[in-house]
Amino acid sequence: MNKGTILSGMRPTGKMHLGHLHGALLNWKNLQEQYRCFYFIADWHALTSEYAHPDIIRQSTYDIIIDWISVGLDPEVSTFFIQSEIKEHAELYLIFSMFTPLPWLERNPTYKEQLTELRQKDVYTYGFLGYPVLQAADILMYKANGVPVGEDQAPHVELTREIARRFNHLYGEVFPVPEVLLTPTSKILGMDRRKMSKSYGNAIFLTDSDEEIDAKVSQMITDPQRARKSDPGDPTICNVFSFHEIYSKLETIEAIRNDCPSAKIGCVACKRMMAASLKQGLEPIRAKRRELASNMERVKEIMAEGNTTSRAIARNTMAEVREAVKV
Ligand code: TRP
Ligand code: SF4
Q: In the prediction, which pLDDT does 3 show?
């Protein structure tokens, strides 16, 4: 039976945090069981916004691969690759750019939003406008049937669908039209209750030490209505409680559900319990991380193998594309 192909990627612009874990990565991990999965490092995409300080890209590439394996993405089951190692992506991107109408790119809501958000980075460039065309090349190169992404990326995948249809219409059926698989948003927020993000400085990283976790948890905003310990709290709107629900034992969760609204437990004690559960829950990931970080040769080997597998597929697709386009 053909299991169908899944592909997704991440830009290497920093280390993985709990937002990535509970948003994308655990979802990717589950998909491995049902599909042929490709997960890749979108380093050319990172260059679209980080072109002035590219050092972060190389550094985070290996950090991210180590994180992926540590959380249970299995290189024996899924294929990992690095975008810039598969030069065929650049050729397919160029061909797609010939027939992608400019208005499709200019009206893209994610593009418009990022232009304003990333103003200090000066992303008013040709490469940044073409970002989703490169993304279409990533996806279609492996003839993916499904692309698991967050809501912000959905317009890009919609564009991929339009590019696939337009290619097939102009040159004959080569590409499947991939589905967007929306990743449910993570219930976990950053320490300040905004979405967890490196750029907000509110994230807990998979690489954080026990001391860093303790310090960050103690700063977390809880139920904002609860100013004093004697005030009743509401766990259902408390981010600390969301962490408990993922990382603590059922008895602990039940106890807090009872004792917080009756003000029998205070936030300081509640946070201390949560930090303990979190550290314990992350320990297997951190242990695996330490093991891999001390065996970089193995990590590089894993990447080289994934790159080789992916390159072979990319070569096949490009042969078909050149045949279809006749250039
Ligand atoms: N744009 C994606 C992000 O920022 C990364 C990405 C690049 C991607 N190419 C992709 C995701 C292809 C899915 C499929 O998160
Ligand atoms: Fe949140 Fe716990 Fe404080 Fe209740 S006691 S408000 S669940 S931190």
A: 82
Residues 42 and 155 in one domain: yes
Asked if residue 203 is part of any domain, the answer here is: no
Backbone angles phi, psi at 116, to 5 degrees: -80, -40
Residue of minimum CA distance from atom 3 in ligand 1: 10
Return the closest-CA partner of residue 70 out of 58, 62, 82, 59: 62
The mean per-residue pLDDT over the stretch 212-239 comes to 95
Residue 41 CA to ligand 1 center (angstroms) comes to 9
- Any domain includes 94: yes
Instruction: Record the pTM.
Output: 0.95
Q: Which atom of ligand 2 is nearest to the CA of 271?
A: 8
Q: From atom 5 of ligand 2, which residue's Cα is the shortest distance away?
A: 267
- Domains held by the chain: number: 2
Kindly report the protein residue whose alpha carbon is nearest to atom 4 of ligand 2: 260
Tens digit of each residue's pLDDT (9 = 90 or more) over 62-117 = 999 999 999 999 999 999 999 999 999 999 999 999 999 999 999 999 898 888 88
Show the domain range for 109: 5-188+296-325
Q: Which ligand 2 atom is the nearest neighbour of the CA of 238?
A: 1
Residues 124 and 45 in one domain: yes
The CA distance from 307 to 81, in Å, is 5
